[in-house]
Specification:
By secondary structure, the protein is mainly beta. It has no helices and 14 strands.
Amino acid sequence: MRQLLREDVELILASKATETRLATSLVKIGAGITGEPVEGAVLEACVQQGEHYIVFLTAGIPYEDSLHIHLLDSDLLHRDSVMLAAAYTTGNFRNLILEEGGALSFEFFGSRLWTVSVLSEKRLRIPYLSGPSGVSWSKGLFHQLDIRSSRN
C-alpha cells in the first residue's frame, strides 16, 4: 500500500456543481483515466492498495463540504463510493494514516477518527442502518468499502 504523490494523480472537471448536483471529475492516474465521472472536485489523497486505488475527493463547498471516497480497480473502473457529509457542517480532511492490515484512518469532522478499508468481497449495506451517522454509500445494496468512526 502506498500513497500516490499529487503529481501522479490528475482531476479533470467533468461538470461544475449546481444548486442540485455536486461537481464531478474524471480521475487520471498514469496513462489511464476513469471512464465515468465521480463526485468531487478537489483531490485530497490517493492510495494504491494492491489492485485498487482509493481516491479521496472533497466537493470544495465552503462551510458545508463533503468527502467522497471512491474505489477504483487497476483499470480505473469505478467499483464503489462512500460519502461523508452533514448539513451545515464543513469537514477538513487531515492526518491520513496507512495502517497495517490495509486500513486507512483519517480525520474529517471535528475529533472523529474515520477508518476505511476495502473488503475482499462485497457486503450487504442497508441504507440508514449499515454505517455511522453522516455516511452514505453509492447506489446499490452491496458494497466493497467499509467505513467506521470513533472519537479521538
